């Protein structure tokens, strides 16, 4: 507990010293942190009465060769500044049974998957926070823990009276919980098949006496139904008088002309917490699905993966929190966010309409990224190769550009967003590859003279060229070429030295407002990396 407290204080101090824009872009957490499955909630700040924070509860991809990890941490930010994220430390580990004995002889905790949290208010105004940590052990898969604060620590509260190693309750994979306005509570879970029940509010862990578990609350992806196609990732919200169930949907093969994928978050809505449900549509597609001029769709990011997240209203704006796959496997997922438009018609026969969000690099910086800030190249939201990438589970094979990750570099004391820690590159940029960012706001460069793009890269083994475009990655698609750089290959692989290059982009002065930015790679040599992109910014002399 002492270590967690020290870390939390260090991160808070560091956050006070850094630019307020630091954690605004996607991914919005530091790039050394891997928090997928984020469930966002706005709770009162227990250390700052009268103020609120956004808390994001997720799993923790620290095992590297498997999903998730053996602890869960929470990150939070003040609602008035969604760029100032801090780590509040470890909130739960499943290491001990009800008698205080180690669950595993090696002293390690259970693996914890995607969690959820529920705030319960007592009549006297006090609050309890229930954590559903999705323990990956059959004896404790339904474990529930409780705390007095939203940042924990959480302590198990539903151990069996008959066996100190077991917990009691209905929950299974990917739990979600809703405390309704009338004091009734509901639970949701499932993998492939969706299940739900009314909970006993006295325990927040067991089925309410006299009620039963609902099997197949919405149709699963193997049920023959081609609308809901529930896969996993249950999440529940109430908006006005409507209930919104968010889930990972497995798209059908050939749907929108694309391969089947469970990399999409979808939703349905109801006038009752347990249904019946009306399908609403896709909230966000993690593949970076893009509509082409000819009406077809193309994948501009990771070809497939999993997703889990939910929606949250912060102030007067709705957001969807989700994650992206980084690196070349399923086990390095990073927290992402996008603004949402949510329309609700109340009353019988009403509806919830959520417009599908766009997969971008902006995150909370919805006015566009600042071109004068230096960004890690790995915040790219668009990366394609000379041929489509393909999945060989749990890996993805990229003929071209992909995100490069760095682990273990943060010391837990310094500024978590400092450049030496906050690194993420774009690697394997072969001829025919494209790397893109949506969107930069060029209002600050409009009308300026002597504009240059300062690009830090590590040369590959072959000669090549990088062309820089606005709006689209080619003139045939309506893009505007603003600069070009010849890259000389370095035979000292893999020990090539990073270099800083300046690219003249003088005609950028004519562009105002938000535009996408693209790097297009060409080389006479096919299949070999021209360079690794490390980071970049725009400068004016």
CATH homology-level superfamily of the largest domain: Glycosyl hydrolase domain, family 43
Strand order of the largest sheet: 24-29-34-31-32
Mean pLDDT: 94
According to CATH, what is the topology of the largest domain?
Tachylectin-2, Chain A
How many domains, as an integer? 2
Q: Which secondary-structure class do the elements indicate? A: mainly beta
Helix % is: under 10%
Number of extended strands: 35
The tally of helices reads 1
Oligomer: single chain
Tell me which CATH architecture of the largest domain applies here.
5 Propeller
Percent strand equals 35-45%
Shape call: globular
> What are the segments in which pLDDT stays under 50 over at least 5 consecutive residues?
1-21
Largest sheet, described in full? 5 strands, antiparallel
Distance between the termini: 50 Å
Name of the level-1 CATH class of the largest domain: Mainly Beta
How big is the Rg?
A: 24 Å
What do these coordinates show?
The structure is a single chain. This protein is mainly β and 541 residues long. It has 2 domains: 2-355, Tachylectin-2, Chain A, CATH 2.115.10.20; 375-540, Jelly Rolls. The protein has 1 helix and 35 strands. It has a 5-stranded antiparallel β-sheet with strand order 24-29-34-31-32, with no helix packed on it. Strand 13 (230-239) and strand 14 (242-249) form a beta hairpin. The protein is globular. Residues 1-21 have low confidence and may be disordered.
């Amino acid at each position: 507990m002492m270590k967690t407290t020290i870390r939390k204080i260090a991160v808070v101090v560091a956050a006070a010293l850094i630019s307020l824009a630091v954690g605004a872009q996607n991914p919005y957490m530091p790039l050394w942190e891997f928090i997928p499955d984020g469930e966002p909630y706005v709770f009162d700040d227990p250390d700052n009465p009268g103020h609120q924070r956004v808390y994001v509860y997720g799993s923790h991809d620290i095992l590297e060769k498997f999903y998730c990890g053996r602890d869960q941490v929470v990150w939070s930010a003040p609602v008035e500044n969604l760029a100032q994220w801090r780590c509040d430390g470890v909130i739960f580990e499943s290491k001990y049974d009800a008698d205080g004995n180690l669950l595993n002889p090696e002293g390690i905790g259970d693996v914890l998957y995607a969690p959820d949290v529920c705030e319960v208010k007592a009549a006297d105004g006090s609050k309890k926070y229930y954590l559903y940590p999705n323990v990956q052990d059959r004896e404790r898969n339904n474990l529930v823990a409780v705390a007095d604060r939203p940042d924990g620590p959480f302590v198990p509260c539903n151990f069996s009276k008959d066996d100190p190693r077991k917990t009691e309750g209905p929950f299974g994979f990917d739990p979600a919980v809703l405390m309704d306005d009338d004091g009734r509570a509901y639970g949701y879970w499932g993998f492939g098949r969706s299940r739900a029940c009314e909970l006993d509010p006295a325990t927040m862990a067991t089925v309410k006496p006299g009620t039963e578990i609902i099997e197949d609350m919405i149709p699963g992806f193997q049920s023959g139904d081609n609308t809901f196609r529930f896969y996993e990732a249950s999440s529940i919200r109430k908006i006005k008088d409507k209930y919104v169930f968010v889930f990972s949907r497995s798209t059908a093969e050939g749907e929108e002309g694309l391969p089947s994928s469970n990399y999409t978050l979808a939703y349905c809505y109801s006038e009752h917490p347990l249904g019946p449900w009306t399908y609403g549509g896709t909230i966000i597609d993690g593949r970076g699905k893009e509509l082409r001029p000819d009406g077809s769709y193309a994948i501009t990011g990771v070809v497939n993966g999993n997703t889990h997240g939910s929606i949250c209203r912060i102030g007067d704006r709705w957001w969807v929190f989700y994650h992206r796959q980084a690196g070349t496997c399923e086990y390095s997922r990073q927290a992402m966010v996008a603004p949402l438009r949510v329309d609700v018609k109340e009353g019988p026969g009403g509806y919830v309409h959520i417009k599908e969000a766009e997969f971008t690099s902006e995150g909370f910086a919805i006015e566009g990224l600042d071109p004068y800030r230096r960004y890690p190249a790995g915040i790219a939201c668009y990366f394609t190769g000379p041929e489509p990438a393909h999945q060989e589970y749990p890996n993805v094979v990229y003929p071209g550009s992909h995100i490069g990750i760095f682990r273990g570099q943060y010391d837990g004391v310094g500024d978590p967003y400092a450049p030496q820690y906050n690194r993420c590159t774009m690697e394997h940029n072969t001829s025919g590859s494209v790397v893109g960012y949506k969107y930069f706001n060029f209002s600050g460069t409009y009308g300026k003279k002597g504009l240059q793009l300062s690009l830090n890269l590590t040369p590959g083994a072959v000669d090549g060229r990088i062309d820089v475009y606005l709006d689209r990655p080619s003139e045939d698609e309506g893009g505007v070429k603003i600069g070009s750089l010849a890259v000389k290959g370095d035979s000292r692989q893999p020990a090539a030295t990073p270099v800083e290059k300046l690219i003249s982009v003088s005609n950028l002065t004519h562009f105002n407002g938000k535009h996408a930015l693209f790097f297009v790679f060409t080389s006479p040599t096919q299949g070999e990396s021209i360079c690794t992109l490390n980071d970049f910014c725009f400068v004016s002399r």
